[in-house]
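Case 546 in the screening queue. Each case pairs one protein sequence with one candidate compound; here the compound is 3-methyl-2-oxobutanoic acid. For every case the pipeline is the same: read the inputs, emit a complex structure as tokens, and attach any notable structural observations.

Predict complex for case 546.
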Amino acid sequence: MANNNYVRIFDTTLRDGEQSPGATMTSAEKLEVAHHLARLGVDIIEAGFPAASPDDLEAVRRIALEVGNPASAESEARVPVVAGLARANKADIDKAWEAVQGAKKPRIHTFLATSAIHMKHKLKMDPEDVVQRVSEMVTYAKSLCADVEFSPEDAGRSEPEFLYVVLGEAIKAGATTLNIPDTVGYTTPDEFFNLIDGIIKKTPGMHNGITVSVHCHDDLGLATANTLAGIRAGARQAEVTVNGIGERAGNTSLEEVVMALKTRHPVFGLDTGIETQQLSRISKLVSNYTGILVQPNKAIVGSNAFAHEAGIHQDGMLKHQSTYEIMRPEDVGVNQTNLVLGKHSGRAALRNRLAEMGHSLDDVELDKAFARFKELADRKKVITDLDLEALVADEFYRPRDVYLLNGLQVTCGTMGMPTATVRLRGPDGVVHTQVAIGTGPVDATYKAIDLVVNVPCILLEFNVHAITEGIDALGEVTVRIQSEDGSMTMDAQSEVEYSRVYGGHGADSDIIVASAKAYINALNKLIIAQTEGAGKVKNDFGVMLG
Ligand code: KIV
Ligand code: ZN
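Case 546 output:
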């Protein structure tokens, strides 16, 4: 029961977000997101569920070492805690500890369900056995790691009196954070306020060294409201994801909670350590990596969140910004200086701008970025931060190139059959060429790529949009594909195996090229996962798995 004015932001984009079907990221992408989360100022990064697979464990281990240590953060105080999730059993807890122990501030987060429905149908355990297991497993986790978090899963539908007992045992066994999940997004803000209030007041052994945390799902669209209600009741940790990604309707969105606390500071009187100017950037990064688009009207980070179409609104805005804007777009990193670069800008200007945007590139990377920048500057007069962001994502934040686009020629229009000739460099270094006819230029291109790659998959989603205004804008394409052979992973909570969905992203001033890149990007992820899963190749970090 922390009684201060600081709300810790516990980001679970890489665990609850990534575990949701369709949000798969490669190990390198997870590491990159973790670096950005640290820069954003989150207090805790839940880096994954190490027991899910050797690859998940390795990704968490790498994040703990690289992001969870002072050398990689501005100062020691800003180094985030790195947490790993574990079911309440020794094997999971051992794996979580193996993964996080390299961090300066490691945390084991263990959980067990406490609602009657879950205990009876999922766990098939009596309430007394649940209490005993929590006590034993929190004790075990504490014997390994000083910082232990416990979550009674489905707390939103659990009997409050039973929760007080379970949480009291968790405190006795050494847990210092008690996280209260509304796992199925069932509660209302008033109910959730009362639940947290009751837990703080009635749990035996509750003291100032215990942080009560809230973790809400958005099934009824109430996740942010419930999280804020829990915070008003005294919770001082909020578990959130970037863009609100997560199981089903998602988790509470980081940007909504942070901006609500900031914008309505007089109401809450609470602070977070988040550098809000980076919210828009991390939102795009996560969307690019997962292939999950942000709806245009999404609060804070949607493309329309600060757009004023209606004439009456525009008129008001021109008279005074505050008539229709409760936050300034600059506060969340939208429409920032957009220092414009052009054809004549040099390497140093590009390096500086990218560094200001949070991308520190080494010399080799800068060479590549500069070449792409010049190529674009030949076609597009002014290059904005949004263009640079897309270029960097396209060039650097993508999985290892198993297949790489080496050439593309498409003919289409009303005079003939859309035909694509595709050249791809394969993992063997050989360049493969294929030709295909399709219903349109993208279909023809994808068919030709399929002929080379030969990995059966289903295209679930294809989206294209222009990054900036104007006819010369860069086109950005995101796709989501699913393997027909089913590369499976396990969900931490339901323990159900599901077939992963892979997102791909590509940017180019030619949208067919962007489409090809996005598809190859997603296929590369799928191939890496399938071959790594089978222990046939090294993972993104060069470690042999399997
Ligand atoms: O929603 C949930 O209950 C969870 C727990 C594992 C914290 O994600
Ligand atoms: Zn959850």
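Case 546 observations:
- DSSP finds 18 helices and 16 strands in the chain.
- The pocket of zinc ion (ligand 2) is lined by residues 16, 181, 183, 215, 217, 251 (CB under 6 Å).
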